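Q: What would this chain look like folded?
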Amino acid sequence: MSNNLVNETSPYLLQHKDNPVEWFSWGKEALDKAKKENKPIFLSVGYSSCHWCHVMAHESFENENIAKIMNDNFVNIKVDREERPDIDDIYQKVCQMSTGQGGWPLSVFLTPDQLPFYVGTYFPVLDSYGRPGFGSLCSQLAQSWKEKPHDIEKASENLMQSLKLTEKISSTTEIEKSVLDEAAMNLLQMSDVTYGGFGQAPKFPNASNLSFLLRYSKITGISKFQDFVLRTLNKMAKGGIFDQIGGGFHRYSTDARWLVPHFEKMLYDNALLPIVYSEAYQLTHNEFYRDVVTMTLDYVLREMTSTDGGFFSAQDADINGEEGQTYVWKKNEIVDILGDDAEIFCIFYDVTDGGNFEGNTILANNVNASAIAFKTNKTEAEIKQIIRDSCKKLFTIRQKRGQPGRDDKILTSWNGLMISALCKGYRITKQKNFLDSAINAVDFIEQNLMKNGRLLRTYKDKEAKLNGYLEDYSYFINGLIDLFEIEPNIQYLENAVSLAKILIKQFWDEETSSFYFTSNDHESLIIRPKNNYDLSMPSGNSVASGALLRLYHLTNEESFLTVTTKILGKHAQQAAENPFGFGYLLNIIHMFLEKPTEITILDSKNHEIGNLLEQKFLPESIMIRIKNREQLDLLSNYSFFSGKTFDENKTTVYVCKNSTCSLPLQKLEEIEEQI
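A: My prediction, written as structure tokens:
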């Protein structure tokens, strides 16, 4: 028998529609019921591809006895953290303060007024290792609610006081290069010099921090920062965290060597990582990095793209309760499929009889093709061709296996990230399908996830809902600008400007010089959250500051620069001291200090010039490639384009910095002197 989740659109909520627990989604019905019946709320937050969410569901939420305790004593609410990041953000902070850690599933017990009084993550079904079993915990808290209301009240007061402290206002500091110096040194101290990445296991990709260190290496000329980034990118792309056959990155590595991943694939990782790999290619012109970008974006277009042009959210780690079943191999299986080529393939990807993961093998490359070529009396090109052909054969076989579940809701924010990634990928590969997909995604969002000029959060089954959050606006605006740089359709710029003005009007908090996570007309929760940290995804504040800085240079709208300057000044010192949590913001501080170089390519005849410039690592630049006179005429009212002339017979480049522009340039060597 289905519960109240049966009519929801969230794949995560629908996973629980047949639980014996009488689940509700977050909303008026559930919250009113809690107040009317004076019952505490059990809030369970997770997402569809979360392994431990599945475990707790099977152990506890499918258990009839535990369900009865929950139904008798609580109003039980399920929340998809990807649909409601505001709710997740608030109670995640409570969990981290109370337990020293967070994560999913997030399990929170609330008063009918939504105040937390007990919080944790995964609870086992039975008492173990000093941790209460979930059934016992529910019984104890239900009894305390009835018999010790004063204790509950005191616990919730203490948690709320601590929660409010998380929203403290930091002091404003000068935006100086010393911020970048301190941040870079602090990051390097956290680095793993052997395997790359930061800290030990588990390891997350942290793309924004890697991008920052590339920028810092460029402005200082200190190679060790770039060397560290490239080592990290190499280790990740050759490790098990990267799907060697199908492309795309898994969520994180459970070990320090990037070998054994948590096998879920998130759209945002596969948007953020191609950007830093594109930058690595621009720096080195090593085709390995371009291949990683291509494989990752091809994976997204193949498996994570709707027929309408939007991008799905995630693929699960589990199949039939086993994690990674789709992706691992046994040696005898590979030998049967590849025949004579199996030996070379197994050496290249370290495939052994015993395996490296629960008797199976996760493919990882630790041997150079040149070394195998020397050993086998083949050329390096022959070895690489054998590997490519073998991967294609194995991929065909793998597609016949059970495939991981897919969360097919479409989020505006993550789609914004993917639009940016496709634009960066197009610049270094010139694969037109990448550009076409970015254009299609923008069209999809504007047609399906906008209402009265405002953004909505999520789309599934032809239904769009929930007011857009800060990250929805900032990521999408940034994606529009990235697309405009390549395809300078005035509509993209005008829409970015319009959304930026809404962003400031609806989300800006002048008192703290930062954006709220929710709009002025959003549902009222126990606090109005802010999230300034760049973690698995960059914060909305950081991305907004960068987008507004770029828009200022394109439009000369002073309010955009004012907001950017205030955000950077408010968080600069925090970024210097705790760079791990401000990687994206540091990239924007770098751009601000370097003063963006404005490059306009009037691309009529010699396309080679534009192609070569797009292959260069110019992170502090805003580079627009105009294709015809009509485009330039439509944009002439914007300061960025005023005074520039399109020559039908010559490709001309203008380079402007500090409000001073070069003469029209037509030779690559002249252009390179200016940039």
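The chain is about 50% helix and 10% strand.
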